[in-house]
Every structure is written in structure tokens, then in C-alpha cells.
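Risk register update: the risk of archive-format incompatibility is retired. Evidence:
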Amino acid sequence: MKKHFTYIIYSPKYNLYYIGSTSDLADRIKRHNENRSIYTKGKGPWEIKAIIEFDNKSESYRLN
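Archived output:
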């Protein structure tokens, strides 16, 4: 079974936090920093503040 992650990222420029979930953490963070995410577009650069690993998607969404 594929692992799933809930993550918290932070934009020091805007003093803004964002919580998200994904199964491909590296790609997701890259998308945030390349302005390819609607909610975080133009607010980066983003820093990872926390990562929590789950065994499945539904568990990770409960934390959001």
C-alpha cells in the first residue's frame, strides 16, 4: 500500500501556513514552489515545517 502524507509548509515572506495531503511529497512541494497550486500560487517560497506519514489517504485527510 502506498504511503500518504499530511504536511505543513510556511511562507516567511507572507507569514502564511498551508496544510496539505499527498502521496508524492517531493513533487507536491515542488509544485507549490513553482506556483502550480491554486491556493499557494505567488506566495512562496515555501518551507516544510512538518510531515506526518500515514498508511492510507483517508487517515491523512482526517488531520486536515
